[in-house]
Design brief:
Strand order of the largest sheet of chain A: 1-22-21-18-17
Helix content of chain A: 25-40%
Low-confidence stretches of chain A: 57-64
Shape of chain A: globular
Helix content of chain B: 10-25%
Strand content of chain A: 15-25%
Number of helices of chain B: 5
Number of domains of chain A: 2
Number of helices of chain A: 15
Radius of gyration of chain B: 18 Å
Mean pLDDT of chain B: 93
Low-confidence stretches of chain B: none
CATH class of the largest domain in chain B: Alpha Beta
Oligomer: heterodimer
Mean pLDDT of chain A: 92
Radius of gyration of chain A: 23 Å
Order of helices and strands of chain B: EEEEEEEHHHHEEEEEHEE
Structural class of chain B: alpha+beta
Number of strands of chain A: 22
Largest sheet of chain A: 5 strands, mixed
Largest interface: A-B, 28 and 25 residues
Largest sheet of chain B: 5 strands, antiparallel
CATH architecture of the largest domain in chain B: Roll
């Protein structure tokens, strides 16, 4: 078997024939010519520039704003594959919410010894101010973007839960919009489930999560740190799409026991705040006193039951990568069922045996910081130089509890369009789920991230990844 | 002992203030050590926006200033019947688990000075005596005098200085007890001292969780365990968690603060 064949190809089976979800697309693509396609690719880029989706990359001075490359070849998922995935995601989200409620209240799972106390006690994302409190509807993760990777026909793994602040949903929507503009004919022949309801569903889901005391139609707003934030475009895009106000901390104050925003007609109460400001900066009166981005008093109003904060403060505990390694046990503990979606095998470097294994096999592993995100501070063993490996081994020995390691996954491939035609590239998938007292709603689609460099397994946009439109076919 | 308490906090501003918030922990809670009778919190120049119990069980009132006010007066008053339980409060209050009170905070982060203080014995029967010795040593090292430290001085910095107040003593004490593996918390409250009615300020002391006894109080500044002259208002991991009044104000006006506290029998 050659190296390329070692990876599961989602579009073409090993005999070169298209896999069933791709049959319609493959037939259509065979009739296209490369020049027209290359031209379409340029058009798509111009379309994106006009609509303005850009992405700030931290740590790159000369590239404050950069376009995330978009590839025109869709990633296609069959209805039955999607059914299994969405069941698994829903189960996982229910487990995570039960877990968050438990660790901030009775802590049964710690008492039962299923999850070690240190994992919570030493977790920077654990917020004591959330203890002994139930948020409205008992929901902590209103918006979730579960990262999923595929390694075979029936092998899906959850890589990260992103229960705190999943971003990227604007790409899901814009990518589809672009595809509809570029290739309207495709959507009349292939039955692709729409994603365009997402903003409407997001608003409904947030409204349904309003505090019980709220009367009339709940008022929803999005709190942004401001235009310098890397995801500001997404904040303003979602506010616009939902038809709600985009606010900053200085627009808000405590009025009559509620958080209210300044309008031309005086102050208006906000019932549900979709905040894109991190916990630490959310309330200078409770957390970091020097924060200028937050809303003083919002935690007091929250604990008094007069506002819903989405996602709930302290939800980041569930995103800790050491906690991740216990998710199958967590799901079993609260739902009584085995996890439908598998976890990636994870070595906790805090455990001496695991640390030794990781040090011995560093060149084959991916090592991540337990609190890290977005591909920062991680080591990809197979891609690292000897010097990088040895430097990282020193870091591991100095602070083993700060790291987990995972095998390098054989991520599936979907072709991208290159100058010489289609070429396989590795992908992952981030579906978006909405949680309200009415249940879990998962948009049929998501954000497919693709590693544009040949052979690369790192799909993060901060590390040179691109995106694709994600199609879930009708049954 | 029946204590009658009247605690007035008055802010005056050099210019009218458009927006300010004060977070109050000014309602003592009933426990085995104290029964709270009639109790009121009255506000002049502002109003209570929200009231709730926090993660330690403390009763919180969030107060906003009346827009354009140039003074804000907060008066907490009422009756508390206290019992002398020789400082022993017993089992846990609130949901916060014991491990939470083993963790340092920004204000109680131990440095060289705190680490140099003696550790408490692991033998349960020696712990109370050890903690009293520790308390005496802290007071000797850092005699009580106001002005040497500020409300945001961390325990470690306070210990390196010349003098301190009850807040510094209690924070140093909890930081040191935690180093010995003992859950420890900060308590703010009232104290009827020296048989006099007029008190200078609210008081602060510490509580340590000991096997077999539960939470036991230590008032470092006075070298005793709290008795019936003490009224607990709020607890937390440090002074910020348990601050009776904590505020935030927009604008350039300067403020001056006047506190008047009467505790009488």
């Amino acid at each position: 078997m050659t190296k390329e064949n070692a990876y599961f190809s989602e579009m073409h089976a090993s005999d070169g024939e298209p896999r069933s979800p791709y049959i319609g697309y493959d037939a259509w693509f065979a009739k296209q010519n490369n020049e027209r396609f290359a031209k379409k690719s340029q058009e798509a880029k111009a379309f994106f520039r006009r609509t303005g989706i850009t992405f700030n990359v931290y740590g790159q001075q000369d590239a404050e704003e950069r376009l995330i490359p978009f590839d025109l070849v869709p990633r296609i998922i069959a209805a039955r594959e999607w059914t299994k995935l969405s069941k698994g995601i829903e189960q996982r989200i229910r487990g995570l919410n039960a877990f968050l409620h438990d660790i901030y209240n009775r802590q049964e799972i710690l008492r039962a010894g299923v999850v070690p106390v240190e994992l919570i006690a030493q977790n920077d994302a654990f917020l004591p101010q959330m203890m002994d409190f139930c948020p409205p509807g008992n929901i902590y993760t209103h918006i979730v973007g579960t990262d999923i990777v595929r390694t075979g026909e029936n092998d899906f793994f959850v890589l990260e839960d992103n229960a705190r602040t999943p971003s990227g949903v604007s790409y899901m929507l814009e990518n589809r919009e672009t595809m509809l503009q570029m290739f309207p004919e495709l959507f009349s022949t292939i039955p692709v489930q729409p994603v365009s309801d997402y903003p409407k569903n997001l608003r409904r889901s947030l409204e349904a999560s309003a505090p019980p005391g709220c009367k009339g139609r709940p008022c929803v707003a999005i709190l942004t740190p401001g235009i310098h934030n890397s995801a500001y475009y997404e904040h303003s895009f979602l506010a616009d799409q939902m038809g709600v106000e985009l606010v900053e901390g200085h627009d808000l104050r405590v009025v009559d026991g509620h958080i209210a925003m300044r309008t031309t007609k005086g102050y208006k109460t906000i019932d549900v705040l979709y905040r894109r400001v991190d916990d630490e900066y959310l309330d200078p009166l409770t957390f970091n006193p020097s924060s200028m981005l937050g809303v003083p008093g919002i935690m007091d109003v929250y604990r008094a039951g007069n506002i819903t904060i989405a996602n709930a403060p302290g939800t980041g505990v569930a995103d800790d990568k050491a906690v991740y390694s216990y998710i199958p046990e967590i799901i079993k503990f609260y739902t009584g069922e085995p996890a439908i979606l598998k976890n990636v095998q994870t070595f906790r470097c805090s455990e001496p045996q695991s640390l030794q294994y990781v040090l011995d096999n560093l060149a084959d592993l991916v090592v991540k910081e337990v609190h890290g995100s977005g591909g920062y501070g991680m080591l990809v063993g197979p891609a690292a130089s000897k010097q990088e490996l040895s430097d990282f081994a020193d870091k591991l020995r100095a602070r083993p509890g700060n790291y987990i390691a995972q095998p390098t996954l054989a991520l599936s491939t979907v072709p991208i369009f290159t100058d010489s035609g289609l070429a396989p590239r590795h992908v992952d998938l981030r579906p978006f789920a909405l949680v309200s007292p009415n249940g879990v709603n998962i948009t049929s689609g998501g954000l497919t991230r693709v590693a544009l460099t040949e052979g690369s397994l790192v799909v993060n946009s901060s590390q040179g990844g691109g995106t694709k439109d994600t199609w879930v076919l009708e049954d | 002992m029946e204590l009658s308490i009247s605690h007035t906090t008055e802010y005056t501003y050099t210019a009218p203030v458009d927006y300010a918030l004060q977070k109050l922990r000014l309602r003592p809670l009933s426990s085995v050590m104290q029964q709270v009778g009639q109790w009121e919190v009255e506000i002049d120049g502002g109003k209570i926006e929200a009231s709730y119990r926090d993660h330690y069980g403390n009763h919180i009132d969030l107060v906003s200033i009346e827009p354009g006010a140039s003074a804000l007066t907060i008066r907490a008053s009422g009756q508390v019947r206290t019992l002398n339980s020789t400082g022993v409060l017993g089992s846990v209050m609130g949901r916060a688990p014991l491990w939470h009170f083993l963790q340092p905070t920004a204000l109680t982060m131990p440095g060289e000075a705190i680490k140099a203080l003696p550790r408490v014995a692991s033998d349960v029967s020696a712990q109370v005596a050890d903690l009293h010795r520790l308390s005496d040593m802290i007071l000797k090292t850092l005699p009580y005098m106001s002005g040497g430290t500020a409300v945001d001085t961390p325990a470690e910095d306070a210990l390196k200085g010349e003098t301190g107040v009850c807040q510094d003593h209690a924070q140093i004490f909890v930081a040191t007890a935690r180093l010995s593996g003992l859950p420890a918390r900060y308590v703010s409250g009232y104290l009827r001292i020296n048989e006099q009615v007029q008190q200078e300020a609210t008081h602060a002391w510490a509580e340590v969780f000991l096997q077999g006894l539960g939470w036991v109080g230590f008032d470092v500044s006075n070298g005793v365990s709290p008795d019936e002259k003490y009224v607990r208002i709020a607890i937390g991991r440090d002074a910020r968690d348990a601050a009776p009044v904590e505020g935030l104000r927009m604008g350039d006006a300067d403020e001056s603060l006047m506190v008047s506290l009467q505790v009488q029998q």
